[in-house]
């Protein structure tokens, strides 16, 4: 029982705590969530996405994949999607986090992707942004990904 409690607490601590004023964005199934700064707005009338200024400046999307077992990416899959070792930040049983696109100039976008386990599936997030938005902010959004806790 103590081990289960410790695992539960550590899973909650794994998602980075977002500042209190940030907005919580949930996917359409209310299974997964991310947090974005207060100046970001919902993208359209749907759940699961937020933008900064417009979708060409920055967009953060959260989604859930019910029934998809969460597991680390294998070496051949990493090769197939083209993620170099220096851009793979976490690839373990509790989180996958990597940079899948690096901008080539001020108008080109970069992107971070992350995934975490959820009850009965997997949560995923992708943050696409131009350099002026800031890599640290985009990482913080991607790392805020968490499964929605159901009471």
Description:
- By secondary structure, the chain is α+β, with helices and mostly antiparallel strands.
- The chain contains 3 helices and 10 strands; from the N terminus they run H-E-E-E-E-E-H-E-E-E-E-H-E.
- The strands form 2 sheets. It has a 7-stranded antiparallel beta sheet with strand order 3-4-5-9-8-7-6, covered by helices on one side. A 3-stranded antiparallel beta sheet has the order 1-2-10.
- 30% of the residues are buried.
List the helices and strands and how they pair.
Layout (H helix, E strand, L loop, with lengths): L1 H13 L8 E4 L5 E5 L4 E2 L6 E4 L5 E9 L8 H7 L6 E4 L4 E6 L8 E9 L2 E9 L5 H9 L2 E2 L4
Antiparallel strand pairs: 1-2, 2-10, 3-4, 4-5, 5-9, 6-7, 7-8, 8-9
Protein traits:
single chain, 151 residues, alpha+beta, Protein Transport Mog1p, Chain A, 7-stranded antiparallel beta sheet, 3-stranded antiparallel beta sheet, 10 strands, disordered N terminus
What spatial order of strands do you see in the largest sheet? 3-4-5-9-8-7-6
User: Uncertain regions: pLDDT < 50 for 5+ in a row?
Assistant: 1-14
Gyration radius, in Å: 15 Å
Global shape: globular
CATH class label: Alpha Beta
Number of helices: 3
- When the domains are counted, the total is 1
Q: Report the major sheet.
A: 7 strands, antiparallel
Class from secondary-structure proportions: alpha+beta
Task: Tell me the total number of β-strands.
Answer: 10
pLDDT averaged over residues: 87
Beta percentage is 35-45%
Q: Give the termini distance in whole angstroms.
A: 19 Å
């Amino acid at each position: 029982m103590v081990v289960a409690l410790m695992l539960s607490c550590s899973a909650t601590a794994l998602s980075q705590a977002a500042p209190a004023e940030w907005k919580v964005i949930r996917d359409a199934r209310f299974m997964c969530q991310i947090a974005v700064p207060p100046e970001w707005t919902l993208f359209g009338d749907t759940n699961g996405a937020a933008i900064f200024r417009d979708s060409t400046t920055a967009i953060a999307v959260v989604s859930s994949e019910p029934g998809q077992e969460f597991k680390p990416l294998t070496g051949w899959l990493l090769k197939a999607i083209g993620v170099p070792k220096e851009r793979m930040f976490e690839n373990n049983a509790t989180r996958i986090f990597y940079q899948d696109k690096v901008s080539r100039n001020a108008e080109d976008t970069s992107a971070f992707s992350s995934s975490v386990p959820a009850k009965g599936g997997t949560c995923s997030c992708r943050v696409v942004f131009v350099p002026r938005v800031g890599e640290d902010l985009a990482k913080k959004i991607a790392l805020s990904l968490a499964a929605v806790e159901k009471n």
